[in-house]
Amino acid sequence: MRLWTTGLNGKLAGLAAFAVSVTLRAASIYDAGLYSQVPLEDVSDANRATFVADAKAAGVDAVLLSVVDFFVEADQRKATLGRLAAEIKSFEAAGFAVGVWINGFGYGNDRPFFKDSVKITSLEGKARGGAVCPLDPKLRQALADNVRDIARAGAKFILMDDDYI
What we know:
Blueprint: E1 2-8, E2 17-23, E3 35-39, H1 48-58, E4 62-66, H2 74-93, E5 97-103, E6 119-121, E7 127-132, H3 137-152, E8 158-161
Parallel strand pairs: 3-4, 4-5, 5-8
Antiparallel strand pairs: 1-2, 6-7
């Protein structure tokens, strides 16, 4: 539930309207009012409490754990999925609705996993970094594998960024 109030900011010489958000904890990610991205690679046992405290102080309802460019080989993949599962549980236990944010075909980063895949080309016919064509069979399979494995790790919501920026 979101309640908006307006008022006057007495510190300004002119009249200024501002909105104050009063948010109750979201029952699910779908009714969250304020979302915050938390890169999986940045959170650890040493700093998780700081992330949680800062997010609560800011009024965050939902955390989107980002696992960008999750196209890795088996050993690294298993470890990352284990960390993801643990962080989903940690942030849920702290009272947040939790989702996972992944990217799709990329926007220029180097992607060795797709070195032989069809790259997206510009209107001038030039390949743009590591961006892979959404119709490339290896990319499509990798995206399906990511969604399946992230759901198995406990994600109830997955945001797949289409990377059209």
